[in-house]
Amino acid sequence: MNKRIAIIQFPGSNTERETILACKRNGLSPVEFLWNESAGYLSYFDGYIIVGGFSYEDRSRAGIIAAIDPIINQIKIESQKGKPVLGICNGAQILVESGLVPGLKNNHIGISLSENKRIRKGKVIGVGYYNAWTYLKCSSAFSECAFTNSIKSEKIICVPVAHGEGRFIIKQKLLSQLVKNNQIIFRYSNKEGEIINEFPTNPNGSIFNIAAVCNNKGNIMAIMPHPERTTNGDLIFKSMKNYINKRSTIAIKPLAIKTKIKKIKPYIINPDSINWIIDMIITDNEALTIQNALNQIGCKVSISKKIVWEFYLKENKKDVLKEIEKTGEIYNSNKEFKTKEKLKKNTVSFLIRQKEDMICRSKLESLKNRFKIEKIIDLKRGVLWNIKINSGNIEPTIAKILNSNILFNPLSYECYRINQTLQRPNKNRA
């Protein structure tokens, strides 16, 4: 009897057809399952695949909104029974943001999938979306892994990648544990199987050339490349079938690594900087998405979002700022405008910055190299989230929001609480 596999689709998923065909080629029985169907029906399936795509759920960052959807909670329950869960590309991002991989206690986040960073000879030569064929080396001898039991260790397979946020970031202590446990399932390599940590062998700058990682029981795997788009990846789906046929109930135990919750620091304005606060003329759908997601988890709040640019300039600052504004690189005057920000009643504000902001880096290089604005020393970018509490006690609600990780992933982002106006009193400020 064929094993029923739920093909989980969120709005914007676009690889369900390829995934369905891959399942059928390997003796599995795929069934399309939409994100808004009754989650309880998932118990009737033998396994789950969260497909790839560029979903509207990615408006804050890839995978985070879907990760707190009720359907993912049910998948967590089913995975505890030992059922296999495969997340591909956007599906991998969802598994990471939900904490299902690598499998820390209470599904704490232990991994970040950040913006691509293409590195060659120590220099960043490109950022953002990348689509190409790549080689994967099956690096794990993990016999219990649901997705590699038909694959020999060290085997090389050629599959495509197509993503903008696929760079695995893991703290060294956890990485060492994952390597020890054989949880790093696939690594990017060249055709000969050599692990070379630079582009194009490593297409996105992932630490340790990681392409796929699983939980410590091997029944959940997050993989950024697309094995469903080629018959080269069929062994992964064949392995999934073999695992289901042999599966017995397993006890899932979390990794013996604790995550430290970092205290949110207050934002302190650098006296040498000049800030621009950018708001949108049109409706901010990203803010609305976050607001709706928080309301769904019981946080009755109103959300607004602005972008904060922090400039470090040489002399003639007013003239330099006018030059920057003319380029249109920092904001689009057709749909955005410069504004001021004041602290408001019943509102808490946070400034979120990427530790490695590839967008900001690209803008800085463009201003210097393309527009020849040499008097700009440095540039920083952040997202300002204003959270208005509609009712109830402010601080417990804020704590719940921060614990959801919806605003930022602590591995790849910094978070500051705003306790003062962002505009520094300065008569020379433009």
Give a written overview of the molecule.
By secondary structure, the protein is α+β, with helices and mostly antiparallel strands. It has two domains: 3-246, Rossmann fold, CATH 3.40.50; 265-418, no CATH class. Helices cover 23% and strands 29% of the residues. It has ten helices and 20 strands. It has helices spanning 16-25, 64-67, 70-79, 90-98, 172-180, 234-246, 285-296, 317-327, 358-370, 394-403, and strands at 3-9, 28-34, 47-50, 85-88, 112-114, 117-120, 123-127, 130-138, 156-163, 167-169, 184-189, 210-214, 220-223, 265-266, 274-280, 301-313, 336-339, 347-354, 376-389, 413-418. The strands form four sheets. A nine-stranded mixed beta sheet has the order 2-1-3-4-13-12-11-8-9, sandwiched between helices. A seven-stranded mixed beta sheet has the order 14-20-18-19-16-15-17. Strands 5-10 form a two-stranded antiparallel sheet. A hairpin with a 5-residue loop joins β12 and β13 (220-223). The longest helix is centred in the middle third of the chain and has 13 residues, at 234-246. It is globular and about 70 Å long. The model is unreliable at 425-430 (pLDDT under 50).
